[in-house]
Amino acid sequence: MAVLMIVVGAVVVVLCFCSALLRWNEVRYSKKDLPPGTMGWPVFGETTEFLKLGPNFMKNQRARYGSIFKSHILGCPTIVSMDPELNRYILMNESKGLVPGYPQSMLDILGKCNIAAVHGSTHKYMRGALLALISPTMIRQQLLLKIDEFMRTHLSDWNHKVVNIQDKTKEMALLSSLKQIAGIESGSMSNEFKPEFFKLVLGTLSLPIDLPGTNYRRGFQARKNIVRMLGQLIEERRASQETYQDMLACLMKQDGNKYKLSDEEIIDQIITILYSGYETVSTTSMMAVKYLHDHPKVLQELRKEHLAIRERKRPEDPIDLNDLKSMRFTRAVIFETSRLATIVNGVLRKTTQDMELNGFLFPKGWRIYVYTREINYDQFLYSDPLTFNPWRWLQDKRLESQNYFFIFGGGTRQCPGKELGIAEISTFLHYFVTRYRWEEVGGDKLMKFPRVEAPNGLHIRVSSY
Hints:
It comes from Ficus carica. It is a single-pass membrane protein. By secondary structure, the chain is of the alpha+beta class. It has a domain at 110-345 and 383-435: CATH 1.10.630.10. The protein has 17 helices and ten strands. The strands form three sheets. Strands 1-2-8-5-3 form a five-stranded mixed sheet. Strands 4-10-9 form a three-stranded antiparallel sheet. A hairpin with a 2-residue loop joins strand 6 and strand 7 (360-362). Helix 2 (47-53) crosses helix 3, helix 7 (136-154) packs across helix 8 (165-182) and helix 13 (296-311) crosses helix 17 (418-435). The chain is globular.
């Protein structure tokens, strides 16, 4: 009996302590005119619930507090906005004190010169350097041919195999980028680079807790290894008399180069290109394969478009810019896949001063999560929004330019690699649907938050078309 009383007493003490801790954390962030909401535990906040429940967490909070509410996620106090008009204002007004506000883990791992971390004149300069690498001229003259060469090889031996399309598209996105950036083919460097890069990606969306075994520690160590590899590659290039035609050569060029970058800036630019393209290209490609399998009429229309292109060409002829422009239905499939799968859930900003928005105080230094996921399913913007319907993008050309089209970001931060990414996915789909047919093995589950992924892979049985 005495032991039971001790246990009960201990439980009561723990519950009282936890309740007091939660209450203290709420009082700590209870400034006048803040949006309503809850802050969870000290340090950890509501990160666990946010990552575990994802969209349901957001829906529950909105049902309780409205479209603008406060929380504490990914290590910092945050105001979540699910209001379309406010979201557009935030994305369009960086100069008014609404600067990038990515999590500390992402800033540490991607580097302080990463384009997402800088703002003002520095951002303009770094964005200019990046755009020079992936401009329409560069895509036409250099990049598209490299993409075509890579996709032909990558998709050459899938016949009569069961493949994990998630692994294949991840590998595709990374290796295609490495070929474009530094002419790196499948081999020793890419084999060393791949596992480090995958650890880096996982580390960017984690709490910045530097302890052994954490994703943050592994991601930060992976960055060091990648910086070492890229630094060694730059030194080898400088010592070589060979002339190179790739992104790294453009970044290293001094004579006649409008954008002169230090080695640190060059390395962070490369990591930026790899990271930003990897997630969107790989996941959109995987989900396009999934949706095409589930919607035979869409697959039939897409295949018709690509077979018509192949009929105009010899087997060895690569995809060119005119072919890419003719892939109108393919572009619609990519947009619809991005919309329905919601590859990007939102964008983070940070206030540089106290400001009032929509009647609420947004304190200096707080992050703003511009949550754009729900707008992809808005029935006033997209009729029958939960249906996969690429034709909607052809029937209403205004969809791609409407004010709430945030699939590729918004404002001055719209994804600079949008057209390059579309070119990569389009070329992948071209060779995939003209060479193969496929069926799902079955039993694989998909997660939609915080990343779209199949935890155990997405397996398909491939045969020749």
